[in-house]
Amino acid sequence: MTLDVVAVTSGLSFPSTSRALTDLLLDATVEALAVAGHEARTRTVEVREHAEAAATATVIGTRAPALVGALEAVEQADLLVVASPVFRGSYAGVFKSFVDLLDSRALAGTPVLLAATGGSPRHTLMIDQALRPLFAFMGAVEVPTGVYASTEDWTLELFPMPWLTERAGRAARELARFADLAPPASA
Prior knowledge:
Layout: E1 2-9, H1 17-35, E2 39-46, H2 51-59, H3 65-75, E3 79-87, E4 90-91, H4 93-99, E5 111-118, H5 126-137, E6 141-142, E7 147-150, H6 162-179
């Protein structure tokens, strides 16, 4: 069975540690799904590419075609990987603007792996205090292991440290197990 795995990343800088984290998590998920006998089609939605369109859609109600495509990819995903940088103890505003435009009912039952990035380990609880309630509200099935990565979890070249790779693998294996619990949206 082929599953659509969509990553949503809301990093603002380039290169972005949030994007590096979703890439790591997508690779680990594809590997875990292969072990479980599934193929995966992956797509990454860079929220920053839709920031202006999301603001326009929020204020005026008009949705640009690229924004519609990105929202539909998330809503129709079989599995989601979501990562946001931490801003003032919560997810990025640009991330929230994008998520606010999703049909929240479309995510009911969708397995999601939650992740976040920040400058220090002090923000590790953001996943549990901000992201989990948001996706619980939408009825998503949340993987127990969230993956938080601070500056010290990366090399200067943005390669993950071994402990981050291990956490990513554990969370991805959990997401792959969740894939068997619910029928895929594309079936």
